[in-house]
Specification:
This protein is mostly helical and 339 residues long. It has a domain of 222 residues: MetI-like fold (Orthogonal Bundle). Helix content is 68%, strand content 0%. α7 packs parallel to α13 and α12 runs antiparallel to α15. The protein is globular and about 75 Å long. InterPro entries: ABC_transporter_permease (IPR051393), MetI-like (IPR000515), MetI-like_sf (IPR035906). It is a multi-pass membrane protein. Keywords: Cell membrane, Membrane, Sugar transport, Transmembrane, Transmembrane helix, Transport. Its main location: membrane. It holds the Pfam family BPD_transp_1.
Length: 339
């Protein structure tokens, strides 16, 4: 057959159609429809958060539920091997913990008041030092980068190494604190005990503020980068001094950050266990007996895990109430300021 005859023959016939894929137009075997792109886009964040949620359940929520269950039992050293067989006590552990006429309730109340005073003092000083340092670090001067690194050193050091070093510095006979205050400056009549008696509260506050204030400094310093410099330039042209600029521009701009920062610092400080335990050991002085150490003593020293668990639940409820009240108050204040 010639080329022209082949052309005429092929012009009269259409090419054969391709066989359809099994499963219809979607191209899915078994007829299963493809998930919409919107559903996949909405489900992807939850899928990425799933490992963190599972880890949170494993590390925090499951032990918390076990602790709540233990608070209703008479769990002592006799039932450590099989704590599930401990007798059911109901709310008796809670009644003993809040009974202010009994030694257990009185000790818990004293520890709670000490913790409140310590938290308010430490959080206030951390915020004040961090905010002040961050504000003055905004100006460009020689050595600013080095000074920032020095300020962040306490936050970068391991907690155990830093607190143990402070414990050695607070020693009465050979500590550096007494060497400077008593031997060199002569500010004290005799070498004071910093880890015993009433001075232990001051020692605890110093260590807590020293290791925590760089966090406030870091957060406030990052927040200050978002304040436009034009506001300060305009205020300077209008004749506003440095204190007026801080009061009228800096602090109002930092209000949303400070609301979160103060709450985080309060929760960290109120629950702090490492600092008092490393400074004073298992037997903390009464003036520095924070509630975290007190609960530890009630649980692992006296072996009364039921009462210790009840105290932990009461502490959790207190922090939840304080957090909810704080967030409610700050949200109302923010709405009022916006209006």
């Amino acid at each position: 057959m010639s080329g022209s005859e082949m052309t005429i023959a092929t012009e009269g016939h259409a090419p054969p159609a391709r066989p359809a894929r099994p499963g219809g137009a979607g191209g899915r075997r078994g007829g299963a429809p493809r998930l919409p792109a919107r559903l996949r886009r909405l489900g992807l964040p939850y899928l990425l958060l799933l490992p963190a949620v599972l880890l949170e359940l494993l590390v925090h929520l499951v032990p918390m539920l076990i602790g709540i269950m233990m608070s209703f039992k008479e769990l002592t050293q006799f039932y450590i091997r099989d704590w599930g067989s401990a007798p059911w006590r109901g709310l008796e552990n809670y009644r003993v913990s809040i009974d202010l006429n009994a030694p257990v309730g009185q000790d818990l109340l004293n520890s709670f008041l000490v913790t409140c005073a310590f938290s308010l003092l430490a959080v206030g000083l951390c915020w004040l030092l961090g905010t002040t340092a961050a504000i003055f670090m905004q100006e460009d001067f020689r050595g600013r980068g080095l000074l920032r690194a020095v300020f962040l050193t306490p936050y970068a050091l391991p907690v155990y190494a830093a607190v143990i070093t402070w414990a050695f510095m607070f020693q009465r006979d050979n500590g550096m604190v007494n060497h400077v205050l008593h031997d060199q400056l002569g500010l004290t009549g005799e070498r004071p005990f910093w880890l015993l008696g009433g001075n232990s509260f001051a020692a605890l506050a110093v260590v807590a503020v020293w290791k925590t204030w760089p966090f406030a400094f870091l957060i406030v310093m990052a927040a200050l980068q978002n304040i436009p410099r034009e506001l300060y330039e305009a205020a300077s042209i209008d004749g506003a001094g440095i204190w007026q600029q801080i009061r009228k521009i800096t602090l109002p701009s930092l209000r949303p950050i400070n609301q979160v920062l103060v709450l985080v610092l309060f929760l960290w400080t109120f629950n702090d266990f490492n600092t008092p335990y490393l400074l004073f050991g298992e037997a903390a002085p009464a003036s520095a007996n924070l509630i975290s150490v007190h609960i530890y003593q009630s649980s692992f020293v006296t072996w009364n895990f039921g009462t210790g668990s009840a105290m932990s639940v009461l502490l959790l409820l207190f922090l939840l109430v304080v957090t909810a009240a704080y967030l409610l108050a700050t949200s109302r204040g923010r709405k009022t300021a916006d209006v």
